[in-house]
Amino acid sequence: xxxxxxxxxxxxxxxxxxxxxxxxxxxxxxxxxxxxxxxxxxxxxxxxxxxxxxxxxxxxxxxxxxxxxxxxxxxxxxxxxxxxxxxxxxxxxxxxxxxxxxxxxxxxxxxxxxxxxxxxxxxxxxxxxxxxxxxxxxxxxxxxxxxxxxxxxxxxxxxxxxxxxxxxxxxxxxxxxxxxxxxxxxxxxxxxxxxxxxxxxxxxxxxxxxxxxxxxxxxxxxxxxxxxxx
Length: 230
What we know:
Elements: H1 11-19, H2 25-43, E1 46-48, H3 51-67, E2 81-85, H4 112-119, E3 123-128, E4 140-141, E5 145-146, H5 159-163, H6 178-185, H7 188-199, H8 203-223
Parallel strand pairs: 2-3
Antiparallel strand pairs: 1-3, 4-5
């Protein structure tokens, strides 16, 4: 069955198409869940999936489109799916920070930056992998396994790539540029502070991570050939 969307569509454009009723949030959510089914066994980008919650949130987003008196009444990124790195709390989901010693009890509440993403209209898609406490430069841990490069699945990836660019170029998700835009709209320093708290990083290290993330997501991805896991 052909996909209802191009998986490389930036989230800003995807949300605009949803507001114009060119595609339904349900179609978008199901498309990404199918791609996760097809690719994640090889690439191990996701460590927690909540497909039923994704489908319900997508259905609620579709209902909101129907009820809205005007497209301008909808949040700016309404209906676009978004993964969350397993360093942040999402209410009802476990947070391991990549550690085998973590308490896997569901989080009681979402971190502020996660709430801001939801307020911006995102449908939370699941949690992506990390090294233990995000402290190592490669994306593998005893708790979550090894995340593979979509360009060469025999290789692992830089840890920051495990949950963001890895999920984009393998076409599981379309957030090459839009995750950066979402982080801006949701107060990027809240994101930095959340990572700092989860990983006990110094502010200097976190600022370097954010700068590297900004560099990696757009220009680097644009210059690379298509991934082999397309």
